[in-house]
C-alpha cells in the first residue's frame, strides 16, 4: 500500500506542537550563549528526544531562509551535519519526501548516515514558521552502500517572531534520531547535545553572513 506521506507529515507537525506546549520532564544537559539543550526519554523509540531553545540575532525570514528544507537550500553550506539534501518527491506545495546524508562525525566513530523523511513546512498566523519531519520509506530511496540508514522520529524547528524585536528570532528545535548501526549509547548521548550546540552556533554565523 502507498504511504500516506501528507498524513505522516501532518502527524509529525502535530507532535511538534505538542512538544512545544508541553514543558514537563525536560532535563537540561548543555548550555551555551546561543542555546540551552534539554532532553527526555522519547515516546517514539528507545532513545531520547532533545530540545534546543535559543534566540538567533536575525529576522525570522533570514533564519527561515537558512534552515528551510528545500533543494539547493543554504543548509548544506552551513550545517556541518548535513552533507547533501535532495528532494525525492514533491507531494504538495508544503510536503516533500527528502533524502539527507550526513558526514562521518565524532572523530569518525559515527560513520556517514542517510535519512529518508517526509518534510512539512507550515506558517502560523503569528508569523511562526515550522519545518517538521519524520522517517518514511520511498521506492526511489533503497538503502545505499557506504551509508548506515538512520531514522528521524518526529522532529522539527519553530522560527518564532519576537514581538517588538524584528531582528531577533526564537528558534525552538526538537531532534529525536535513531542513528542506526551499533553505536554505544554513551556516544549517542554525548553526540546530540554537542551537535545541537554546533547547529545553533553555525546557524548564527550563517544568518550574519546573509546580512552582509
What does this entry show, briefly?
The protein has a single domain (5-211), classed as START domain (Alpha-D-Glucose-1,6-Bisphosphate, Chain A, domain 4), CATH 3.30.530.20. The protein is built from 4 helices and 12 strands; from the N terminus they run H-E-E-E-H-H-E-E-E-E-E-E-E-E-E-H. The protein has helices at residues 5-21, 60-67, 75-78, 185-211, and strands at residues 27-31, 36-41, 48-56, 84-90, 95-102, 113-123, 129-135, 148-149, 151-152, 155-162, 165-175, 177-178.
One letter per element, helices H and strands E, the order comes to HEEEHHEEEEEEEEEH
Number of domains: 1
CATH topology name, in short, is: Alpha-D-Glucose-1,6-Bisphosphate, Chain A, domain 4
Helix content bin? 25-40%
Class by alpha and beta content: alpha+beta
What low-confidence regions span 5 or more consecutive residues with pLDDT below 50?
A: none
Query: What is Rg?
Result: 16 Å
What's the name of the CATH homologous superfamily?
A: START domain
Domain START: 1-212
Protein name: STAR5 protein
Pfam family, one: START
Keywords: Lipid transport, Lipid-binding, Transport
Structure report:
By secondary structure, this protein is an alpha+beta fold. The chain has one domain (5-211): Alpha-D-Glucose-1,6-Bisphosphate, Chain A, domain 4 (2-Layer Sandwich). It contains 4 helices and 12 strands; from the N terminus they run H-E-E-E-H-H-E-E-E-E-E-E-E-E-E-H. The strands form 2 sheets. Strands 1, 2, 3, 4, 5, 6, 7, 8, 10 and 11 form a 10-stranded mixed sheet that branches. Strands 9-12 form a two-stranded antiparallel sheet. Helix 2 crosses helix 4 (185-211).
Amino acid at each position: 500500500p502507498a504511504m500516506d506521506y501528507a498524513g505522516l507529515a501532518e502527524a509529525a507537525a502535530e507532535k511538534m506542537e505538542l512538544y512545544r506546549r508541553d514543558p514537563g520532564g525536560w532535563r537540561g544537559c548543555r548550555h551555551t550563549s546561543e542555546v540551552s539543550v534539554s532532553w527526555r526519554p522519547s515516546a517514539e523509540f528507545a532513545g531520547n528526544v532533545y530540545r534546543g531553545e535559543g534566540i538567533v540575532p536575525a529576522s525570522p525570514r533570514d533564519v527561515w531562509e537558512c534552515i528551510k528544507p528545500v533543494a539547493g537550500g543554504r543548509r548544506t553550506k552551513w550545517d556541518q551535519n548535513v552533507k547533501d539534501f535532495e528532494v525525492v518527491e514533491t507531494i504538495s506545495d508544503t510536503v516533500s519526501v527528502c533524502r539527507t546524508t550526513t558526514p562521518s562525525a565524532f572523530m569518525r566513530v559515527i560513520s556517514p548516515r542517510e535519512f529518508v523523511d517526509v518534510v512539512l513546512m507550515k506558517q502560523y498566523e503569528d508569523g511562526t514558521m515550522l519545518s517538521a519531519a519524520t522517517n518514511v520509506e520511498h521506492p526511489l530511496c533503497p538503502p545505499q552502500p557506504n551509508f548506515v540508514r538512520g531514522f528521524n522520529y518526529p522532529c522539527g524547528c519553530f522560527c518564532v517572531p519576537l514581538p517588538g524585536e524584528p531582528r531577533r528570532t526564537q528558534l525552538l528545535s526538537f531532534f529525536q534520531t535513531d542513528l542506526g548501526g551499533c553505536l554505544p549509547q554513551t556516544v549517542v548521548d554525548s553526540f546530540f547535545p554537542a551537535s545541537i550546540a554546533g547547529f545553533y552556533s553555525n546557524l548564527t554565523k550563517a544568518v550574519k553572513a546573509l546580512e552582509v
